Amino acid sequence: MPVSGQAQRVVRDITMQEWTGGADYHGKTGSCSSADGTQHGWWVGFMTRGEQRHVFAANIIGKNANGRALRPMVEKALVELAVLPPR
């Protein structure tokens, strides 16, 4: 689906996350409940540093599951994998 350059710039601006070490880091949380009441949370995004680009998506399901709770877990894993530089 084609998306205008302006729309792409707006999304990049609103998803930009603060991080150190020269990483251009973008992400978006989300949460919902399914019809049976199961709670879901997600943290999705991408990171560029120099010529490297990494895309990530993570999902959590369970009681009190939400994207804000998942985000630090994903960031810890991205640092451990050397995708994100340490803070």
Strand order of the largest sheet: 1-2-3-4
The average pLDDT score comes to: 93
- Specify the overall morphology: flat
Q: Quickly give the structural class.
A: alpha+beta
Q: How many E strands?
A: 4
Strand content range: 35-45%
- What is the rounded Rg? 14 Å
Main sheet attributes: strand count, strand direction, barrel closure: 4 strands, antiparallel
Query: SSE order in H/E notation?
Result: HEEEEH
Unreliable spans are none
Helix content: 25-40%
Q: Give the domain tally.
A: 1
Tell me the span between the first and last alpha carbons.
Answer: 36 Å
Number of helices: 2
Q: Can you offer a commentary on this structure?
A:
This protein has one domain. It is flat and about 45 Å long. The model has no long low-confidence stretch (mean pLDDT 93). It has two helices and four strands. The longest helix is centred in the last third of the chain and has 14 residues, at 67-80. By secondary structure, it is α+β, with helices and mostly antiparallel strands. The chain has helices spanning 5-15, 67-80, and strands spanning 16-17, 24-33, 39-49, 52-61. It is 29% helix and 38% strand. A four-stranded antiparallel β-sheet has the order 1-2-3-4. β2 and β3 (39-49) form a beta hairpin.
